[in-house]
Design brief:
Blueprint lengths: L1 E4 L10 H15 L4 E4 L9 H9 L2 E8 L8 E8 L5 E5 L1 H4 L17 H12 L4 E5 L10 H4 L6 H6 L4 E5 L9 H9 L1
Parallel strand pairs: 1-2, 5-6, 6-7
Antiparallel strand pairs: 3-4, 4-5
């Protein structure tokens, strides 16, 4: 028997890979001879980098970047993933611009920034990435990327350094961008 384990993370408690491991441990008790295929999933939010790096045999790199509230917590530790092809990088807005990094009392999307996400993009380009996958789920800011666009390498420099490169933006919400502030205002402060 073959059992495919393909969960997303359990928000705030377990990564998708940890959920896979727990499911496998439990299922192995009742089906000890089963073959398990572990495929952690993600929807553009937390866990996207880890899932894609694991699926492609890539590597994670730690990056220091500006947090969502630069005046309170100027630098946070984030990560970029270099996928197995060596030319594609994946990163999550949530790891440096994420809602959990903002205390509930300070959740005001007008005071948060995606600048740190731009710094992750710059780090990915500096690591040699030609193609970027940017997960935008789980973010605190609703600045439509204006913070990340302030990082020089994220706009003109990407295309200048990277002819033929690409950017894929992935997210878990079906809401149109123009509705973002209305839809997430209460959730994000």
């Amino acid at each position: 028997m073959k059992i495919v384990l393909a969960p997303d993370s359990f928000k705030g408690s377990m990564t998708a890979l940890e959920v896979c491991q727990a499911f496998q441990e439990g299922a192995a008790r009742v089906a000890p001879h089963a073959e398990f295929v572990v495929v952690p999933m993600a929807d553009g939010g937390e866990g996207t980098t880890e899932a894609l790096v694991a699926a492609t045999g890539g590597k994670l790199r730690t990056v220091e970047a500006t947090g969502p509230l630069p005046s309170d917590r100027p630098k946070v530790t984030g990560q970029i993933g270099l996928m197995g092809d060596g030319r594609t990088a994946v990163l999550e807005m949530a790891c440096v611009s994420g809602l959990p990094l903002v205390p509930k009392a300070k959740r005001n999307p007008l005071h948060t920034t995606t600048y740190g996400t731009g710094e992750l993009i710059r780090a990915a380009l500096d690591a040699g990435a030609r193609h970027l996958i940017v997960g935008i789920g789980g973010s605190a800011p609703t600045d439509f990327g204006s913070g990340l666009a302030q990082v020089e390498a994220c706009v003109a420099a990407f295309w200048g350094r990277n002819p033929g490169g690409s950017v894929l933006v992935v997210g878990h919400s079906g809401h149109e961008g123009t509705l973002t502030r209305k839809v997430y205002a209460e959730h994000n402060g």
